[in-house]
Amino acid sequence: MPANLPSPVILVHGGAGKAAPDLTELRRAGVQRAALAGWQVLIGGGSAVETVECAVRVLEDDPAFNAGRGACLNRDGEVELDASIMDGRTLAAGAVGAVQRIANPVTLARAVMGAGRHVLFVGEGARRFAAEAGIEECAPEALIAERQRARWAASREAKAGALGTVGAVARDREGHLAAATSTGGLPFKAPGRVGDSALIGCGTYADDRLGAASCTGDGEAIIKLVLAKSALDLLEAGREPMGTAKHAVELFTARTGADAGIILLDPRGRIGYARNTAQMTCAFILGDESAPQVVD
């Protein structure tokens, strides 16, 4: 790659929490596929926005994650999805909350961003917007993974367990940044509940001047501390990205005691990631590398 061009970067996560033993390797393989898919967009000259959408779509299509086709079920046994995406170059953003019958809510969020007037659609309004945008619906059953159906049937009163929100941050060859996040939310959540993944500044944020971030964890706690934007504000103070991610999670833990993880990227293409949970499977590709590195 010519020395005068910014180095492309892709970093993805598969959610903070502790995965069941049978999901650990599936999630490691899944984040690798997502990082590689995003990388192909980057090296083909695609934008950071195109890259994070592509990577998150791969994760939404993978039933090992709590997003898209692997999403957990709400109290009524239904799938309701949240997603958001943000362009660091323009600050354009789009998000959807509590949306049903949409397999790839990150693509619907990007359509909201592209329409320009609004940032967030929820519930039935999001479905109507999807129809107007030409985004095809799927049958509700197509989004219910067997493991999630069994989990719901086994204990409708169970506490929220392992998370699996997915997200990506990227820098393209023009030096522009983007971030995206997608989730099925909390297991057994109340119908209509919307978490941090649909809220710009909370679960997702990108600004070419600051960096890009995607969060995962206890959505209500993340919302209260506006974690994505708060972490990038710390980064702007001159900290190194890995240390910034760790410091942001430490501050979050001290204030809330809740679970969280974050991935972030600074304008120079340096990455950071941290979590206060047992696991947060991530994969990244930097600069001239061709194979993703995976960390738990």
Which properties best describe this structure?
8 helices; 296 residues; 8-stranded mixed sheet; 34% helix; alpha+beta; Glutamine Phosphoribosylpyrophosphate, subunit 1, domain 1; globular
Walk me through the structure.
Helix 1 (21-43) runs antiparallel to helix 2 (48-60), helix 2 (48-60) runs antiparallel to helix 3 and helix 7 (227-236) crosses helix 8. The radius of gyration is 17 Å and the shape is globular. The chain contains eight helices and twelve strands. A hairpin with a 5-residue loop joins strand 5 and strand 6 (177-183). The longest helix is centred in the first third of the chain and has 23 residues, at 21-43. The strands form two sheets. It has an eight-stranded mixed beta sheet with strand order 4-3-2-6-5-1-11-12. A four-stranded antiparallel beta sheet has the order 7-8-9-10. The two termini are 29 Å apart. The mean pLDDT is 93. The protein has one domain (9-295): Glutamine Phosphoribosylpyrophosphate, subunit 1, domain 1, CATH 3.60.20.30. With 296 residues, it is α+β, with helices and mostly antiparallel strands.
SSE blueprint:
Blueprint: E1 9-17, H1 21-43, H2 48-60, E2 81-87, E3 93-99, H3 105-115, E4 120-122, H4 123-133, H5 146-154, E5 166-171, E6 177-183, E7 204-207, E8 211-217, H6 219-225, H7 227-236, H8 241-256, E9 260-265, E10 271-275, E11 279-286, E12 293-295
Parallel strand pairs: 3-4
Antiparallel strand pairs: 1-5, 1-11, 2-3, 2-6, 5-6, 7-8, 8-9, 9-10, 11-12
